[in-house]
Specification:
Radius of gyration: 26 Å
Number of helices: 16
Shape: globular
Strand order of the largest sheet: 7-4-17-14-13-12
CATH topology of the largest domain: TIM Barrel
CATH architecture of the largest domain: Alpha-Beta Barrel
Mean pLDDT: 93
Number of domains: 3
Number of strands: 27
Helix content: 25-40%
Largest sheet: 6 strands, parallel
Length: about 650
């Protein structure tokens, strides 16, 4: 008898599956319609095939034959004719491999389903091709272009029952500062520039002085009409509240995109699911809220948070809250290793470990963690083969492949994924929202190295701080972790926030009130101590590498910001908008000689760049939460785990 998992795999590769309607067998050749749907059973989201079968999508990005030539300059590429006598031989071998490894979907950048005979979610690059982005989204001509291009781009897939739906674009990003900056510098005839200036007038009720309290206008500009005429941008005034109107602007442009794309695709291929634009391992909550009515499911790329495969809980919980629980597909995820056969340098901030064995363990664990999310309906590996030796033309150079550039599978990785993939549908079936913690949460004991730029040494399930609160419609934008050891108290944060280096007007010294900031209050029995951990951006961002932000840990007494002797704070150097920091404060900085026997009293809060949003442990604004120590939580230290003899 076939298991439920094997039925899903068989359906994916085009073999017989039980029919959802009537008694006749349902195959890709006989399926009565090409419509995939989304379903929920017991609070767990699923894709459903045209035959009505539940389907957890396990995909591969870039499932194709590689570059048109083996060599180009100093680069050496994956190139199928180097290894196979004809395309059919490559196709048969490759398809057998990926199905044998438990994959069932061809994702973005792959060959079409008529060749691969796999369910597929193509990326249309519709907004990019139709010139929605960075031109004039509010010009009526843009909508006409989008509709025309939608018809052309879906034509190869429309009516194919293996076509699940479409990614509309890749990593649009909705970088709020960049959207404001770009359209502020357009000419007055640009419809989108006109819409932006109209929003500024409305937001400030036509009062230029109010506007100028939040922004530094371009030189010589003193009216909204002058701002429309000038091809220059206003900049944030430190201490102002200009981020509020910039967030509104992000929502307006995002809503325009998602509505327009939705209407164009529904007209061009009404049976296809719409997955959106593959969020870029980060999301702007305003843009996601604008997206929610216009997509069937949320596509997001994801950079796994720790070498052990940890996936941050705040990220998917935030998507759930912002969209009313819409399904999510992880449209791209990856692991690279320094030990690789293609000569990849792994030259950036994306998840990289030392060995192929570590890569296999971490990837298998991450795949399981995605499947345990009740809203996630699939996860898609990036990509089939490694980047070329010498890197891509855009500079990215990673060992992301299931195979190397010589078509040799990374055996440890594909074996681990094969063992995991076959279980993912069953794991997903048992997924559920995390239950509220029972009893009193306690800080676990762990020896944390704050200088290793890794969260692998954290007992993250036990150390995750529960129940962060946000005001109004905001959602948490990070996870806190706490641990204690014989030497001190450790804090870590995985979060996301976007900082635009061109938005803020300031001199040589970055104004600390505009920084991303963690406030941390601790009373170990000798009175409250208040600390801040700020993420400070550089004045100038490098063109082709992660910005060298720094973590600044201070103790606050009255109005001062004093260094904490023997404390260590580390910013991981990840490419913002992902922010990962950790710090260890020695017990003597808390007025005690070692771990106290009585519970600590504690408060935690975080404030985003430019004070755009905040979250705290007790739901109070950070300043009030830190000031009123009577409202701090009482948190015991968990006893050390007994080591087996």
């Amino acid at each position: 008898m076939k298991t439920a998992v094997s039925c899903l795999v068989l359906a994916a590769v085009g073999l017989l599956a039980a029919a959802a309607r009537g008694d006749a067998a349902c195959t890709w050749a006989t399926v009565p319609e090409a419509r995939w749907t989304l379903a929920s059973e017991g609070g767990v989201a699923w894709l459903a095939t045209p035959c009505g079968e539940r389907f957890y999508s396990i995909g591969i990005n870039g499932l194709d034959g590689g570059a048109p030539q083996r060599r180009a300059g100093a680069r050496i590429y994956y190139h199928w004719p180097t290894f196979f006598p004809h395309f059919g031989a490559w196709l048969g071998t490759t398809r057998a491999r990926v199905v044998g490894w438990g994959f069932n979907t061809a994702s973005a950048g792959s060959l079409p389903p008529r060749l691969l005979r796999l369910p597929a979610i193509p990326n249309l690059d519709l907004g990019l091709t139709a010139r929605f982005h960075w031109t004039d989204p509010f010009d009526p001509a843009t909508e006409r272009r989008v509709r025309a291009w939608a018809r052309r781009l879906v034509a190869p897939y429309r009516g194919d029952p293996r076509r699940i739906g479409y990614f509309t674009d890749n990593e649009v990003g909705w970088w709020n500062g960049a959207l404001f900056d770009y359209y502020a510098k357009r000419p007055a005839a640009n419809r989108t520039k006109q819409r932006l200036v109209a929003l500024l007038r409305e937001h400030y009720a036509g009062d230029w002085d109010r506007f100028a309290r939040d922004f530094v206008p371009p030189a010589g500009v003193g009216t909204f009409d002058g701002l429309l005429a000038r091809r220059d941008r206003p900049r944030f005034r430190p201490g102002g509240a200009g981020i509020a109107v910039i967030r509104r602007w992000t929502g307006l442009v995002a809503e325009r995109y998602y509505r327009m794309i939705h209407e164009a695709l529904r007209a061009a291929d009404p049976d296809a699911l719409i997955f959106g634009d593959r969020l870029p391992i980060y999301y702007d909550p305003v843009a996601v809220r604008a997206m929610a009515p216009w997509v069937d499911a949320i596509a997001t790329n994801y950079n796994v948070d720790s070498p052990d495969g940890w996936v941050a809980r705040y990220y998917f919980e935030g998507l759930r809250q912002l969209t009313g629980g819409k399904p999510v597909i992880v449209s791209e995820w990856f692991f690279a290793a320094g030990e690789n056969r293609s000569g990849n340098r792994n030259n950036g901030h994306l998840m990289t470990v030392g060995t192929q064995a570590e890569r296999a363990r971490g990837a298998a664990a991450a795949a399981e963690r995605f499947a345990r999310q009740p809203t996630v309906v699939g996860s898609h590996w990036f990509q089939y083969y490694d980047h070329p030796r010498g890197g891509r033309e855009d500079g990215e150079d990673y060992d992301f492949g299931l195979v190397d550039i010589d078509d040799r599978p990374y055996e440890a990785l594909v074996d681990a994924l094969a063992r995991t993939n076959v279980r993912l549908a069953a794991i997903h079936r048992e997924a559920a929202d995390d239950p509220p913690p029972h009893g009193t949460w306690a800080i676990p004991r762990a020896d944390i190295d704050p200088g290793d730029r890794s969260l692998a040494d954290w007992p993250k399930d036990a150390a995750l701080v529960p129940e962060l609160a946000t005001p109004g419609a905001e959602v948490p934008f990070g996870d806190f972790f706490l641990a204690w050891s014989r030497t001190g108290l450790a804090l870590a944060l995985i979060a996301m926030d976007y900082y635009d280096p061109d938005l803020l007007a300031y001199g040589k010294e970055f104004p600390r009130g505009e920084a991303f900031r963690v406030d941390w209050g601790v009373d170990a029995g000798r009175g409250p101590r208040r600390f801040s951990l700020s993420v400070i951006p550089p004045k100038i961002f490098p063109a082709k590498s992660a910005p060298l932000m720094k973590a600044e840990l201070c103790r606050h007494e009255r109005d001062g910001c004093d260094a904490v002797p023997a404390a260590v704070a580390t910013y991981f150097g990840s490419d913002q908008p992902r922010i990962t920091v950790e710090a260890v404060v020695p017990w003597n900085a808390l007025g005690v000689d070692g771990p106290p026997r009585t519970p600590l009293r504690m408060q935690l809060a975080a404030t985003a760049f430019h004070r755009s949003r905040w979250m705290s442990w007790n739901g109070a604004p950070p300043e009030a939460a830190m000031r009123e120590s009577g409202g701090w939580r009482e948190i015991p230290l968990a006893p050390p785990r007994q080591q087996p003899e």
